[in-house]
Structure formats: C-alpha cells, structure tokens
Design a protein that fits this description.
three-stranded antiparallel β-sheet, alpha+beta, 2 domains, about 230 residues
Length: about 230
C-alpha cells in the first residue's frame, strides 16, 4: 500500500469535514504510527559488512538505537550449511561517537560478515516495508492519533453562542474520542498485540488498618462524647 494510498485512507478514516487537520499533522501521525508499529513488529534486515581489521566495525546506517537488536552474525558468508558466530562472541559497544559492533576474535581487513538484525520500517514515496496485511493497521493508528487531536480541538475551542452549535460542538468531541478508542482497538486486533488502553491499570495496594485509633475508639465511626473528669 503506497504512502499516497495510506494518506488518503487516513483522511477518510478521520472524517475531518471542518479541515482542522493539515497535511503536515497527518503525515506526522503516519510517521508516529510507523514507529509504534516498528516497536511492535520490527523489520528484519540483512546487511553485509566489511571488517576494517581488528575487533570492531560500524553498524549499518539504518540501525536504530531504540529498536535494533542483533539476531545472528554469519561468518564466513555463503558457506553451506550457513555458519554463525557464537552470540557470546559478538556484542555492542558504546563509544563517544556512538555504538559499534565488537567481536571477540579479530577479523582480517576485508573480511565480510552478514549481519541479521531488527530495525524500523520505512514508509516513503520511494520505499514501503510495511507488510500488505498490516497496512490497515498503520491507517488505524495514525487516524486514532488524529482523532485524539480533533477531540482535544473541539473540547478546547471557544464555545459557540448558538445553543444548537454548542450541542454539536460537544457531540463532535465525544464522537472523536470514541472513534479514537475504536481505531486503537482495531490496530491492536490487526497487529495481534494487547490494547494498551485496556491493559494499563492504576497502581494500588491493600493495607490493613488498626481497628481502633489512639484513643481506643473504633475507626470510621464518631467516638462517643467524652465527659470531662471530676
């Protein structure tokens, strides 16, 4: 599903007849949806990296510090059957200039390793890595973000002076809030992840309080009137 098609589908999903949402806001919501989808279903990428010699080499250009993980390292490449380095012999190392890939056994300059890793998805005019079956999930999540913005817009915009317009104003706020919930649930259903709005619960604790206070009276009841001593 092309970027243009997703943009059009998002516009249809939010039904913004008043034209509140501008194109940059729509595109930002789509980008946010792609990032969230990448966290739930990261893209698996493969890159051949040429060792400069020694025990480290730069990571691929599309490596994401928040999403990417090394899955396996093939060396030497194109062996039959494939041969993989022990995962314990390859690790990420943080330097002032950024992360690098380090390996315990030095590799000769010009050696090639085949790195399989996870990274973010791409959705641009030239590249689309979103699986066809999940394109509608991107539409649903981006539209949910925009419906939340529309609900906030109608809730905070100055109230109309005509009573009928005021009622319609409130109605739009509630409709967009409900639409946002439905779209987020649809995203969770398509992708197969828990709906975070339903799984997040407030923290609580159960504490047993003493049944009587410091004066010996029962708690949650007014104590009897105390008479002054003689």
């Amino acid at each position: 599903m092309s970027l243009v098609a997703i943009q059009s589908a998002v516009a249809d999903a939010i039904r913004d007849k008043d034209g509140v949402i501008a194109d940059p806001a729509r595109d930002a919501a789509i980008a946010d949806a792609v990032l969230r989808y990448s966290m739930d279903r990261p893209r698996v990428a493969v890159a051949d990296l040429v060792a400069p010699g020694g025990t480290q080499m730069p990571l691929p250009s599309d490596w994401s510090t928040t999403i990417s993980l090394v899955q396996r390292v093939e060396f030497p490449i194109d062996a039959e059957p494939p041969q993989y380095l022990d995962p314990r012999s390859v690790y990420l190392y943080a330097m002032p200039s950024g992360l690098t890939l380090r390996y315990v056994v030095p590799l000769a300059s010009g050696s090639t390793i085949r790195l399989t890793y996870t990274t973010v998805h791409e959705l641009t005019a030239l590249s689309d890595t979103i699986p066809r079956a999940h394109a509608s999930a991107i539409v649903s999540l981006a539209a949910a973000v925009l419906c939340g913005q529309l609900a906030a817009y109608y809730a905070t915009e100055g109230a109309p002076t005509i009573a009928a317009d005021t009622t319609d104003h409130i109605g739009k706020t509630e409709r967009y809030r409900a639409r946002e919930r439905d779209l987020r649930a649809e995203y969770a259903r398509i992708v197969g992840v828990p709906d975070r709005a339903k799984t997040l619960k407030g923290a609580s604790a159960v504490v047993e309080l003493p049944s009587r206070d410091a004066f010996g009276d029962r708690r949650l009841f007014h104590p009897p009137q105390r008479r002054p001593g003689p």
